Every structure is written in C-alpha cells, then in structure tokens.
Amino acid sequence: MKFLVDAQLPKRLARLLQDQGHDAIHTQDLSLGNATPDADINLLSLEEERIVITKDADFVQSFLLEQKPYKLLLVATGNIKNADLENLLRKNLNQLVEAFENHSYLELGRDAIVIHQ
C-alpha cells in the first residue's frame, strides 16, 4: 500500500512502513516539506492513491465533505511517545492494511481500530 504521513507525526512512521514493504513518504519528503498545504496533500493522495496518516481533524472534515484524501487513517491516541506510537502501528499494521482493502476511513486509537462507514 501507499501511505503519506502528515507533518505532526514522526518521519520514523514512514520508515517503519517502508521497512514493512509499503511505499511510504512523509510530508518532509515533499518539495514544501512540512509546510505543504492540506489541499496539496489531498491532491497528491488522490493522484497516487496514498492513504494519509494524520492527527489533523481538518482531514476528517475534508474526507467527509469532499472525499479527499484518497483514504484516511486518523491517529486518535492523544499525546503518545513516538516509540509507543510506532509499536502501536506495528502491532496493528496487518489489520489496518486488511481493513483498507474495503474501507476508506479508519481511526487508530490506543486500544482499538474504528472502521468508519
């Protein structure tokens, strides 16, 4: 799968996804870096069919109202150490990938994955 990790999440998440065989980039990899506007992230997501991983509720609104980005993973853990977030993603990655086969909007919490219809 293809992923785009948003600015407020660590670049290490993109590397973790790459290590697991996925095509993953971080906003730091884009020409405008972490200053890339949400609209540009949405456009790239649609063009390259990338799942946006974010903590930013603005992407939820955009997805619900405009079906942008292509697919969305909302990280809803609140404040969490980067190492704990990496472990959480690693632990749930297979289930997330499987869920994204049939769904477009998922939410990753500390204790559960929520699939939004």
UniProtKB/TrEMBL annotation:
Domain DUF5615: 1-105
Name listed for the protein in its UniProt record: DUF5615 domain-containing protein
Source organism of the structure: Phormidesmis priestleyi
